TrEMBL record:
This is NAD-dependent protein deacetylase. It is found in: Cytoplasm. The lineage of its organism: Bacteria, Bacillati, Bacillota, Clostridia, Lachnospirales. PANTHER family: NAD-DEPENDENT PROTEIN DEACYLASE, NAD-DEPENDENT PROTEIN DEACYLASE SIRTUIN-5, MITOCHONDRIAL-RELATED. It comes from Mobilisporobacter senegalensis. The active site is at H124 (proton acceptor). One of its GO terms (molecular function) is zinc ion binding. Its cofactor is Zn(2+).
Length: 252
């Protein structure tokens, strides 16, 4: 990591009180939740059949093969013991300082809220929340993940699904609008733990019009040329170190 850039970013965080964080799967890897596209990520794992992971997480597959869909979910997207890491905790500190105004996350694990963040915009939904597709009754994640076969509603018998946007499904327009508004109003935008290759989420970057775009990733990405400040390394360490520097500087 370039330490000159690190201290430039620290100064930016110290001088600004209108910061938005836009994060992806890399934010939660230190919590033991795999990302999607790295060499060890979810999309490079064997699925045990001829279907791709993307197809198995699609609306079509869910409707055609709900039992296989749930088997895949339980084996690959259920991490009941995952805890917030220092990236999540650093963002909570930044919010308590009055600097961080919103988090826009592509993650579905709910760890930002568990850590204590307030204004979290979940772009792709939340895998810990479930509801009946027929009557809308809500269920805890344990009910769906620990039930054998396809979980059914105990009120109407409808299929219970998680509150996550699957492939082929549209992003909720209210969520989309909130994300656009937050990013568009930000003076500083920190983008971390995301390769920014999945649309429409990657397209949110176009709504940031200022000149303090900070990119933090484990390795270089194809969008680094859009960033004003690039930090390469473990985001859980970088964010924590940045916020600790602010606290020691008398800000928090």
């Amino acid at each position: 990591m370039n330490m000159d850039t690190f201290y430039q970013v620290k100064q930016i965080l110290q001088d600004n009180d209108n910061i938005v964080f836009f994060g992806g799967a890399g934010v939660s890897t230190a919590s033991g939740i795999p990302d999607f596209r790295s060499a060890t990520g979810l999309y490079n794992r064997q699925t045990g059949n001829n279907y791709s992971p993307e197809y198995m997480l699609s609306h079509t597959f869910f409707m055609k093969h709900p039992e296989e869909f749930y088997r895949y979910l339980r084996n690959n997207l259920y991490y009941p013991d995952a805890k917030p890491n220092n990236a999540h905790k650093a963002l909570v500190k930044l919010e308590k300082m009055g600097k961080l105004k919103a988090i826009v996350t592509q993650n579905i694990d709910g760890l930002h809220q568990v850590a204590g963040s307030g204004n979290v915009i979940e772009f792709h939904g939340n895998s810990t929340k479930f509801y009946c597709m027929e009557c809308g009754k809500e269920y805890p994640s344990e009910y769906a993940y620990e039930t054998l076969g396809v979980p059914k509603c105990n009120e109407c018998g409808g299929i219970v699904r998680f509150d996550v946007v699957l492939y082929e499904e549209p992003i909720d327009q209210k969520v989309y609008s909130r994300a656009i508004e937050a990013i568009g109003k930000a003076d500083v935008l920190i983008v971390g733990g995301t390769s920014l290759v999945v649309y429409p989420a990657a397209g949110l970057l176009q709504y940031y019009k200022k000149d303090k775009l900070i990119l933090i990733n484990q390795e270089a990405t194809m969008t680094d040329n859009q960033g004003d400040y690039i930090l390469i390394g473990d985001i859980s360490k970088i964010l924590w170190d940045l916020v600790q520097e602010l606290c020691q500087g008398g800000v928090g």
